[in-house]
Amino acid sequence: MYSRDLKSMSVDQLWNLHEQVVAELGRKIAAEKIRLEERLRKLQSAGAIARPDRERRPYPKVLPKYRNPKNREETWAGRGKQPRWLRAQLRSGKKLEDFRIGPASA
What we know:
This protein is 51% helix and 4% strand. The protein is mainly alpha-helical and 106 residues long. It has two domains: 3-50; 55-106, H-NS DNA Binding Protein, CATH 4.10.430. A two-stranded antiparallel ribbon has the order 1-2. The protein is elongated, with a radius of gyration of 33 Å.
């Protein structure tokens, strides 16, 4: 339909056309949603068959490498985010090796 055809249509005709377009879009969207949900179900069932639920393997406990000299209870293994007490000490000019537990490796 060309724009001049739309310009020649009355308001009632345009409104009916609008309702038809909305209804058709609603049907197509619903059909596509059903199709996509079916594909998702197939993918989920295929994933469950190919990879059954397994437990994670046990990882050994990581011993702490650094200790807060002000509070001996606070330690850090060197993994993950640095604790606040260590960040504050590093900002004040101290070095990470100053907090190492045991002999420092070269």
